[in-house]
Amino acid sequence: MANRKLMKGNEAICYGAVAAGCDAFFGYPITPQNEIPELMSTLMPANNAVFLQAESEVSAINMVYGAASAGKRAMTSSSSPGISLKQEGISYIAGAELPCVIVNVQRGGPGLGNTQAGQADYFQTVKGGGHGDYKVLTLAPWSAQECYEFMPLAFDLADQYRGPVAILMDAIIGQMLEAVELHGDFPSIDRSKTWAVTGTRGRAHNVINSLWIDVNVMEELNIRLQARYRTAERDEVRYAEYQVDDADLVLVAYGCPARVCRTVVDLARQEGLKVGLFRPITLYPFPTARIAEIAKSGSQFMAVEMSCGQMVEDVKLAVNGAAEVLFYGRTGGVVPTPTEVFNFVVEYGVSSCAADKRA
Amino acid sequence: MKKVFERPKALTQAEFSYCPGCGHSIIHRMIAEVMDELNITDSTIGVCPVGCAVFMYDYMSCDMIEAAHGRAPAVATGVKRVLPDSFVWAYQGDGDLASIGTAEIIHAAARGEKISVIFINNTTYGMTGGQMAPTTLVGQRASTCPAGRDPDKTGYPLRICEMLATLDGPSYLARVTPTSPAGLVKTKGSITRAFQNQLDGISFSLVEVLSNCPTHWRMTPIESFKWIDENMVPVYPLGVFVDR
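Output (structure tokens, whole complex):
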């Protein structure tokens, strides 16, 4: 029987974590993600799992490091300034090849910024964030339902690729109430972890470590990590398309702006303008190949972000000069309206493109 | 014939990388002896610090985690919370525990986290070359205070046991030093007591060991032990601060 409930994206994250068999949550209060630790404080114990409010973001991510070392499914959640504090730990987690999930409900920045929706942590999330040569597989939900669905997927990817996986949201996706179907129907993967520290009990000792004094051994680790990233780039790319096939202009957006852009596509189509929406679901690995393919068909692109232009760089890398790439962004916590994006499209985007074609 | 002395089973066959006369070697062995005596090695997860003891994962035969600088109590907390039946200790130096990791140790203690911490206070950053530590004595020379620690500019040493003793969380806090045969016995007794508290499920315990750094103190091992007794003990009095 369907179990449909009205809830915020932040709450859907929690139910998704439970569905994923999350063993431990460690977090610290910060708006706009407080619903997550608040709900987890009862959901985790009710599911025989650990909830602990840490003394700092730094401690929370290091508790995740400990619980993940013990082979358990561990997660933390925070918002932009808190995620900055966690970067040291995320780098160690990547270096020690530990699986875990990190939820970032992005807010306006830089600095303390504000508690409204932002997407200016894109670079920090998908390009590494902390020190060293590593990547964080990143999923970007655009609905409360996807917040729920992506948690089990995130834990599976973390286990499969032995590294940190990020869920990159924004304040709107986290705070918005929507109906979520809590179906609990997720594939189960092999979760055995022979490398985990659980007490030797007869076997040789296991060590969780990110220190490699021998430069060649350190390089080997990096080569191993990069090989995994290449596999992820081949196998884990996810995206969604809306009216892209015949589009003269393809809007590229994730999270809240993707919902705005879906409305923009409808507005444009009513006016006879061939606009489509391409929504990357994995921000790393980015859907580079598919965007390149669309670019070859002659479409123009426009990245729409709640930042001063971050994902647009990955769109440009994917297009690689084969098409024009425009950008529209609002930042500092401002959410673009469909009307303003539509007006921008009419002024700079599809109209000039269509005129070029007429010429 | 009865064997009266052997390598503890909780130690691997790896040779310690410590300088001659360094207290880390003594304390590592002592921890291993206590693990053997309590028969806990195969259920133990040890957490080692950043500092001279960073390679401790090579020396202990139990499962080991190398933590980020100062974060060992948070890492140990993560392990203990998900594996409550395992035995978890953390080993930290003074820079690690009393400087960059003050938040982690204070809150692990305040929570009464069921972990045991061995805290090595040798008043210096040994691994990085003998810089001033949070526990460097007033007037003591270090590579970042070559004229001696000036309290007017850099304040005063932290007394960790006394600080943590103000909290309700810890069940056992003791400061010891292995500079004499009696001190060795007391040190091992304190480690045993701290470990036993965790086995009994009581709460957080910490043993602060006043130790030496002959290399950066520029002393012989014997001189360094004498220096502990004469200079460190007056600032860091030995004793049991909490036992409940």
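Chain B has one domain: 23-243.
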